[in-house]
Amino acid sequence: TNGMLVILTPQAMTDPTQTAEELKTHGRIEGKPVLASWMGGSEVSAGEDILNRAGIPTFEFPDDAAQAFNYMWRYAESLRVLYERPGFSGAGGADSPDRATVEAIIQRARDARRTVLTEAESKQILAAYGIPTIPLTVAATEDDAVRAAADLGYPTVLKLHSETITHKTDVGGVQLNLADEAAVRRAFQTIKNTVTEKAGAEHFLGVAVQPMERLDGYELIVGSSIDAQFGPVLLFGTGGTLVEVYKDRALALPPLSDTLARRMMQRTKIYKALEGVRGRKSVDMAALERLMVHFSQLVVEQGWIKEIDINPLLASSDRLLALDARVVLHDPDTTVEQLPKLAIRPYPYEYAGSWTARDGAEFTIRPIRPEDEPAMVRFHENLSERTVYLRYLQQMQLSQRVGHDRMVRICFADYDREIPLVVEWKTPQGYDIIGVARLSKVQGVNEARWAIVIADRFQGKGLGTELLRRMIDVARAEKVARLVADMSPDNVSMRQVFEKFGFKTVAQEGEGELVRVELALS
């Protein structure tokens, strides 16, 4: 049961006041809201007063109470989704995108002052972010097209290869189901002649040759464009040539987690079909969610992309395949400062890196992630009372430090307001966190507060010094003018580290009082 709604209607055998007295004892059910609808106007006002004083909201009509329940549920569900530990594609490893390839493609286009990428370039970008694409070969001549078709196998497809035209079907730039060499030659000439007639010969650079795929799944569209207020916005829905007819789509802001991707897709009509309908197998929904996360990551990281869409994305029970793709870049004269900003700041990969201690031990220092909660709990379980006191300047019970609500606030960082760095140490079971540093920006003034705590067994290895060095770099990158920290006068070792980096003591009221240190960065 999510909660309780009590409805009272005026009847001869009902005492509204006495009923309210009985109900008020149940008004404090932990985690379960209690609402009441006392119908009857002035006749039940005494009962309403009793309930309101007991913290139970009352409504004149049940439908208003039901609507309030709905709002409360939606709010709680939104928080649950927000705080669910999302899947994460790290900055390294096999799942990492090939950013260098993408950046090189975009830079070549910008150097040539092009805003439209070819289909081949667009699919290279998708493939670099782990999005499956159909094999494609660019052919500048008719003979090249024949050789490419023979290599790829018949039947085949020819599409216009152009650096200026993105909607190929509008200029007759697509020829399907070509069964042999003669058909390929005819198709090449047809595309060349039609494009020359409708757009001009300079727009024809050849054709892209690819296998003719069987359309044994659903045609979807995945895309992104720029909103004047929110910056890049993601789109998912029913795709294909009738995309503008069906208009079955959902929008979301990047970046996406697996959960947010699923919630986005659930808002479309096609979603129920993707889960399996009338004997058809379900699409691999987990793979589709991952594809959406990868696409979101592409949009987040490649700010020079103005528009991008995959249409159609073929989705079936055994595969996902981008059959066509289109990428449009911002104007070549656009500066980095003029690029649209994301409404939600993504994970700051740029602050992640490795570090080797004096004894040769290797660690990863990176911003905190939502899925770090279990490791953070273990971290706190192993802190001594003295370490806890030096960090929080008071004793805090373990139950206080590892409570889920507190862990959620710590692990789900708003990177625009704070940058928490953790030190990750690989273990046979996965990883442990053995150090945490937090840079918290102070609203209204251009300064940030700094705090650090290192697991007892790893103290004295230079880890605090390295964390402070990195946090100073982060502060400078975030354009913070001043770093401030309060500490216990007993924390002699940390004071020595601060002094090494040029921090100045700016306040110490008296013996035993807190010490405040400060570092001017600009």
Q: What this model shows, in words?
A:
This protein folds into four domains: 4-83, Rossmann fold, CATH 3.40.50; 135-212, Dna Ligase, domain 1 (2-Layer Sandwich); 220-335, D-amino Acid Aminotransferase, Chain A, domain 1; 349-520, Aminopeptidase. It is flat. Strands 14-15-16-17-18-19-21-20 form an eight-stranded mixed beta sheet, with helices on both faces. It is of the alpha+beta class and 522 residues long. The chain is 34% helix and 25% strand. The longest helix is centred in the first third of the chain and has 22 residues, at 62-83. A hairpin with a 7-residue loop joins strand 20 and strand 21.
Separation of the first and last Cα atoms: 56 Å
Shape: flat
Can you summarize the main beta sheet?
Answer: 8 strands, mixed
Q: Do you know the CATH topology of the largest domain?
A: Aminopeptidase
Write the CATH architecture name of the largest domain. 3-Layer(aba) Sandwich
What's the alpha carbon Rg, rounded to whole Å?
30 Å
Low-confidence stretches: 85-93
CATH H-level superfamily of the largest domain: Gcn5-related N-acetyltransferase (GNAT)
Enumerate how many helices there are, as a single number. 17
CATH class of the largest domain: Alpha Beta
User: pLDDT average, as an integer?
Assistant: 88
Q: Considering DSSP H and I runs of 4 or more, what fraction of the residues is helical?
A: 25-40%
Q: What fraction strand?
A: 15-25%
The side-by-side strand order for the widest beta sheet comes to 14-15-16-17-18-19-21-20
The structure class reads alpha+beta
Question: Any idea how many domains?
Answer: 4
SS elements, strand count: 21
